[in-house]
Amino acid sequence: MAEETNIAEVTEVTEATEAAEVAETAENSETEKKTAPARNLRKERVGIVVSNKMQKTAVVKIEESVKHSKYSKILKRSIKFKIHDENNECDIGDRVLIMETRPLSRDKRWRLVKILEKVK
Predict the structure, then answer these.
(1) Is the pTM of this model over 0.70?
(2) Alpha-carbon distance 109 to 15, whole Å?
(3) What would the pLDDT profile of 13-25 be if each residue is shown by its tens digit?
(4) Whose CA, among 24, 37, 53, 100, lies 20 to 30 Å from 107?
(5) pLDDT tens-digit series, residues 91-117
(6) Superfamily of domain 40-117
(7) Which residue ranges make up each domain of the chain?
């Protein structure tokens, strides 16, 4: 009979501990959702500066190789982004890392993170 009481007590303690852990994890997940930085969701790309003639703006060209689904030929696709360059650091030919950001003007949705390779 003493064994049955001990088993019941242990079961109650275990259930209480599990309930406390579940409640704690729920609280932690809620706070993580609130405090999770949104910057992790922003896209980053590497490209080459094509133009820097505007003030605080540069044009970056990104080339990617894509395999055609039907013919299996490798195609080169390119796209140009206008990026925000606060200090006019970029020169034509530089390799740069850019990050997606809020709309800064009609065309600018990207900003300069850092210059990976300067042109010689």
Answers:
(1) no
(2) 52
(3) 566 666 666 666 6
(4) 37
(5) 999 999 999 999 999 999 999 999 999
(6) Nucleic acid-binding proteins (2.40.50.140)
(7) 2-36, 40-117
